[in-house]
Amino acid sequence: MRLFLRTSLILILFSVMGLAQAVTVEGVRMWPAPDHTRLVFDLNSPVQHSLFVLKSPDRLVIDLKYSHFNGQLPSLANDAFIKHIRYAKRGQNDLRVVLDLKRKIKPKSFVLKPHREYGHRLVVDLIDSTQTKPRKPIRRDTDIQGKPRDVIIAIDAGHGGDDPGAIGRRGTKEKDVVLAIAKKLKVMINKQPGMKAKMIRTGDYYVSLKKRVTKAREAQADLFISIHADAFKDRRAHGSSVFVLSENGASSEVARFLAESENSSDMIGGVTLGNKDDLLKHVLVDMLKDSTMEESHDVAKHMIKGLKGVNRLHKRHVEQAGFRVLKAPDIPSVLIETAFISNSKEERNLRSSKHQKKLARAIFKGTLNYFKNNPPPGTLIALKDRKHRIASGDTMSGIAERYQVSMADIRRANGLKSNKLKIGKTLRIPSYMTNDS
Fold first, then answer.
1. What pTM value is reported for the model?
2. Is the separation of the CB atoms in 373 and 197 below 8 Å?
């Protein structure tokens, strides 16, 4: 009997080891971001792992139990953190991956279960160790020098990195087209005197939904615009929609479906949606108190007016749903579904740079019209600027002296790069003066 039990235990042990040895690293993907680099190990089954940092020179060592490598390493392409990647067998069954580093980092790792088109994954984040904890933002009515400030618009291109978002029939990825639209919108906003854009995501990398909100608040944004191009189970669905946060469920079946789809972004990125998020836990109370939701509705109405000239509207009214990315407690926030990438015609339009520019222009017009009607106190847009029609013999220095403002202020208020003047053109004369000229 003892012999039988011993033999059975040995067989079970070898069986477990055999299963453990079946872990295959099918490839490694890399997503560089400004403040971190993410490595994603694609696996055929769950893996046990450990990691530690070595110094002189700086290295990160990642050990994977009962694993072997059978894929490709990513191209480093001048990554800010990683100098070189190498791997080798460790003992009989394990795999060791070594990252030669360019700087000191704080490593973070976690495993992800299969989700949608993704299988098992090991995610390793290399975080810049010089990062300081962001201070709580203080909203100012003017800039640091006490002068009128720009209106700040946070532009959030949805998804990114390991999270492609929705994918059209032709393989068009939501993350790519919305980033292209966001970049075009940024250029338009920055050309407008008195307005400044802050990009939440500048490249192809993942940003958690909570961090998107945090980055907007750190920038002291006056408006948060999240840009998307989602899919729906019915490929006939088409048109643009504008959403605000809902307290009481979604306003339609499509709204509910899209919110669930967008909120799953953190499942792909590996964020725990537990109850540790105090900001999001209390957000609705704060939003109601600060009237942020009412302002969001107002913004959304202006956006709809702009978009209806470019694309057919899916709904002519503002929609509501529980989008996590709209939960900034003190910033009016809207989410724009520019089109349905699941619709063949709209996918084709979304691939067009010309159409992307039209969508960006529509969003810009909606933004500008909202702030013209609701200028935040202490901003350049809020000033009732004087006007001066340029006549023959006028000079920039003479106009500046006449109105007791600097030439730099006049150039800035009118988007001018030089002191050259055109007869007949009307100049906006700001109601403030700085020391530079």
1. 0.71
2. no
Residue identified by tokens 């993942």 is 206
Output the six-digit token pair for 294.
């009412």
**Cα(116)–Cα(254) distance, integer angstroms:** 20
Q: What is the pLDDT of residue 6?
A: 56
Q: Domains plus CATH for the chain?
A: 20-128 (2.60.40.3500), 151-271+278-373 (3.40.630.40), 383-429 (3.10.350.10)
Characterize the bridge pairing of strands 319-321 and 241-245.
Answer: parallel
Angle 174-191/353-373 helices, nearest 10 degrees?
50
Percent above pLDDT 90 for the chain: 37
**CA dihedral over 228, 232, 238, 244, signed as positive or negative:** negative
Find out whether 244 and 318 touch, Cβ atoms under 8 Å.
yes
* pLDDT for position 175: 94
Rg (CA), the chain: 27
Q: CA-to-CA distance for 275 and 395, rounded, in angstroms?
A: 62
Q: What is the pLDDT of residues 313-363, one digit of tens each?
A: 766 667 775 566 556 667 888 888 888 888 889 999 999 999 999 999 999
Angle at 354 between CA 348 and CA 358, to 5 degrees: 100
Query: What is the rounded distance in angstroms from the CA atom of residue 338 to the CA atom of residue 350?
Result: 9
Mean pLDDT value of segment 225-241: 80
Higher pLDDT among residues 146 and 215, named by residue: 215
Q: Alpha-carbon distance 303 to 65, whole Å?
A: 52
Tokens of 400: 């500046």
Model pLDDT, residue 59: 95
What's the confidence (pLDDT) of residue 132?
57
DSSP-derived pairing of the beta strands 223-228 and 333-337: parallel
Measured CA to CA, the distance from residue 426 to residue 346 in angstroms comes to 41
